[in-house]
Queue: 2 jobs
Job 1
Amino acid sequence: MENGDVKIINKKPIYPVSPELRKYLRFYQRDARLPVSYHDLLGFYESFPVTDKFGKDTLWESPLYPSHEIDRLHNGLKKVYAMLKASGNLRIVEHKYIDRIDYCKFGNSNPFRIKIVNRLNDIYDYFYVKKADASRIYGLELEEIFSPNQVNYLVDGESLIEEHIAGIPGDEFAKTRLRHTDYNPIRIAKEFVKFNERCTITLLGDMRAYNFVMQITPDFDDFQFRLRAIDFDQQFYEGNLKVYMPQFFKENLPYVELAMEYLTDKTVLQYQQEEQSSIMYQARSERHRLRELRDVSIKDNISTVENISQLREGLSRHFKDTHYRHCESMTEIIELNIKNIIRQVIS
């Protein structure tokens, strides 16, 4: 595996949700009529920075709302949580309250993070209110279809509600636990290789360490690890192929070094093939949903002609396959990626 310093220079625009995509979302029960919108949460008049337990700036701010708006916002957000978690069953929020609302100016989506607490036992959860962006929605859908993970989200107009994905932030894990003596480094390196392969095939970009989390599950004789993407903003937009390869981001260097230390070329290839097989089976089992998503996304203008041209040329050189040069959209590129995987696995 290699590592480099890949940079994303230009900020990706927010792409509106097309009528065809909204129809798709309705069919798969991703749409909803929300009592509180992203625009409603922008109505704060002041904010103050949120710091961590060490006093370091977290890049989040805590907004202050007019007193006459707080009850409406909090009650609405509790209903949103019930819609996200229990199809609108309000009994799950009877003993819950909104503890805080945080706002982040960093990144494209400028999300709000909502903390909701059970007053009976102080157990808390988070969810996010973001600008609805077609790129992000396609990323969430592809994650649902191709990865071993389930995603939970709702869309209403220009608002996107996302479930919190629990785990240790990738950058924090690399600093504090990557070399933990109780953890098998081969398992961690294996997971990074498979994660890298999945991102490349599905064109999920910008998977720097702070855009994914590590989930750790104790097994009867060891620990299991899973890397999960938490930011789908850069779904098949950029033209630089390396943007879709987490191994090339300097923030991921500790994971690359771990893989180089504990894996051989043969085992890296084995893990890549395992991930390819998994994606092939998912593509077959979800073929109807995948076809419908393809028919919607191929009509959607969610990148630039220049980016598409650059990416198809990069993939053509990388895989030594001139068929990529005939792709006219990012959707066609992913489709060719999947077809090539199926040919490789069954050959």
Job 2
Amino acid sequence: MRASLIQIGVNPDESIEARRLRAASLVREQRGADLVVLPELWPVGAFAYESFATEAESLDGPTYEAMSKAAADAGVWLHAGSIVERDPDGPLYNTSLVFSPDGELARTYRKIHRFGFDQGEAVMMGAGEELVTVRLPEATLGLATCYDLRFPELFRGLVDAGATVLVIPAGWPARRREHWTLLARARAVENQSYVLACGTAGTHAGVEQAGHSIVVDPWGEVLAVAGPAEETLTVDLDPAKVTETREQFPALKDRRLGLPAPGNRR
């Protein structure tokens, strides 16, 4: 299974429409891959809070149209990163779009954990409420976004739902880059799954991005890592390695859930 992570650079001097066209072209260049992944909120920028409301779009808006056609042209499964979704009956959402090789919208995922500590995304966007997996011929994807990476219980839920490849688009700041790579490896090790963590390059509203997209195997080995600039990582994954790792070191079978809280012990 060949996966390509496109670490798009976000340049404030580039228009959103120009970046859509460029991203679509980069996706088309990945013909021959099975799965292509884009970063979080790459059209507008993950920290461009002042633009969220004006640049929000519906699920069938311009990013959908561009990415649907690109996926079909390349013949790939495409995790198109995320957009600022305008729900006509609710708040804004940070929503990921996944397309099948025929360009159909296969699944969406609304980011559950919103970053900002009562500011920015945390107050401007609604929280998703559903764990989402996508079944591909070779593997089952578990979807998460950026700040979700810090919440291991979400990934346990995805593994229980059958995920073997955890896909995490992000707009992660450079000042916390070490956390990005550490947590990506931790999620791979503890869940015995592949991790495909795709970040952005450049700056979002003056916030330097970490870049360093990373692919980690189920044993925690780093298969590929990008630098800080725009780059595409292409890695061949062996789906059988997930099953082999879980059988050779069956730690997931030893989980003990539902233990009583300390105050309830007798």
